[in-house]
Every structure is written in C-alpha cells, then in structure tokens.
Amino acid sequence: MTEAEALIALNQLPKTGPVKIKRLIEHFGSGVNTLKQPNTTLQQVQGIGPDSAKVISDWENLTNPSSELTLAKERNIQILTQQDEDYPAALRDSYDAPVILYVWGQLEERDLHSIGIVGSRKLTHYGREAARKFAFQLAGAGLTVISGLARGIDTAAHEGALAAKGRTIGVLGSGLMQVYPPENLALAEKIADGNGAIISEFPLQTPPDRQTFPQRNRIVAHWSRALLVVECPSRSGSLITANLANEAGRQIYAVPGPIDRPTSAGCHDLIREGATLVTDGSQILDDFSHLNFSTPKDEEPRPLETYLDLSDEENAVLKALDRDDQSIDEIVQNTTLPTHKVSVILMKLELRNLIQTQPGQRFTRRR
Hints:
single chain, alpha/beta, Rossmann fold, Arc Repressor Mutant, subunit A, 9-stranded mixed beta sheet, 3-stranded antiparallel beta sheet, 12 strands, 44% helix
C-alpha cells in the first residue's frame, strides 16, 4: 500500500476527520503505519476514543482506496495529498487542512491570488447582479473567484467569472460524483473544462448533508486571500464562512443593500463589525496588492501583475509606463502600436486599476 492509498482510506472512514488524521500521522509517522496499529494503540493518541479506534482498525472492511483511485482515473479526477506540489499552499498551512483533495479540472499557480465570493441561496435580482458584476470585474483583473457552486450568490459569482473569461473554483459540500445542486452540473462542467476546477475533500460518491456544507465553508475561507459577502440575511452560512475567514486573518468585504431588506441584514451586520463596505470591484483591486495577506511558508509574496492574464500588447503598454507618465502619442511611439489600439488598452488597464489618468490626458502606472 502506498502512502496516498493509506490517506485515501483514512479519509473514507467515518468518525475521523482532518484534525484526528493529522494527529495520528504525527504520532505514527505516516498513514501506512497508522493503518497497521491495533485498537488499543490507536486509543493512545489524543482525541481517538474507542469508537474512532474501532473504525480505524477495521478499515479494510470499510474502505476501498484502490477502487477510489480507479474511479477517479476513469473520470479524469486528480487526487491530491498535502505532499503533492499542486496542493494549494494556502490550505496546507491551516490546522484542519483537508487530508485529500479531489480535483476535477486544473489548478494553476495563479490561483494563489484568489477571492472568495459568498452569499445567500435565496437571492434577489439585486444580489444576483451585484455578484455577477463583482466576479466579472475581479476575475477579469486576474483574480481567481472561489465559491461553493450552491444556488444563489455562488452560482452568480461563478457565472460572472466565466463571463469575464477568468478563472473560478467551485468547492463542493459533496463528492465530485454527487454534484449538488444537480442543476449546476452543466456549470461545473464548464468550469472544469479549462476555466478552473471543481474540488472536494469528500470521497467521490459522498452525498451532501448538513455536516458537509460547513466543512466546505472552511475551505473557501482558508483558500481565499479575501472574502466578499454579497447578500445574506442575519442568519446565514455565509456569515460562518466570514467568521472563519476573519479568524484566518483574511480581509472581509461586504456589499450593502436596501436598509429595509432582511436579505441584506447579514452584510450590514458585517459592516458594523468592521468589514469593508464596497460598491465596485475596483475598490477591492485597489486594496488587494496592499493587504496583509498571510503568505504560505517558504513562499515569497508575488506582485499581482504576475498573475494577470494580460496580452503581449497590454504588457507592452504597461511596460512603457514604467518610466514616467506619458501621453497617448508617447505611448504609441514607444510601443509602435496604432493609436486606436492603445486607446482601447488604456481603458482596459484603467478598469483593472493598473493605471490612472493624470491631468492633461497623461497616463501613469499605479505603484
């Protein structure tokens, strides 16, 4: 048995979880060694009582890691452990990091710069349009939008990111062979087909339930470098996600709504408690490069521009503005691009908050 198979088996067991499995591995040195231990030895580990020990010692009758690996391969699903290079660094350092991540689609290095967008399943027209607008702006600027693929705000956020031809990641509260809600299967397929990934920590055929969704929320909170709450009532799972993100040191943003609408009461609560009120994605982009995000261990912070999906021509204009502020004619001369193309590129770069217009129609790069 390989270590990956042992971790898959441990992850399939009931009455275990990331924290317990982490303690077992620290105590016995590996997942393989953990599965070799008798019931009485397992109970010597903190948090492992008789019930958990019985389940772990009976793992061969309760799990089938080889079958899980075969099933994943048939469906082009990648299975990551914390030792794999592609495992998200922002998650790896959390105390309850998923033991296993099932990935449908492709994770990329630029997903390090990500923002979570969450909100109510029962959304209003206002909430839907706001979520789509913010996701479109943020994904268009190169940030990866992370959400839960749930009905409502989550769906609108994924749709907005796709409309901007940006990246988005859906975190499921079920196994990848039990996509929930079922009507979002087409959306999941579109995301996985070159636009991001659908991920889950649960075994492939795990159905959703009341416990799996809160577990999903912590992944969104810990992976995201900041969290935007678009619309939610005072009692909402989105507020749980916001609390988790706040505890992890993430910046919290909230979109205000009509003061007489209970659907926005949760956002107003967050704003009173210190969340930053935002009405446009540019306000978040303006902050993003200056926020005190926790950088994964052994990894140097990287400027946002290294993750932006800019064309060669857009990069040429941005590079031309490295020296000093310039007029359109000067940019045309320095880049050899036609005037009409430079005008369009300048507009795009300003929308992405990478440049600003100075008096006299001169342009400068934001520092």
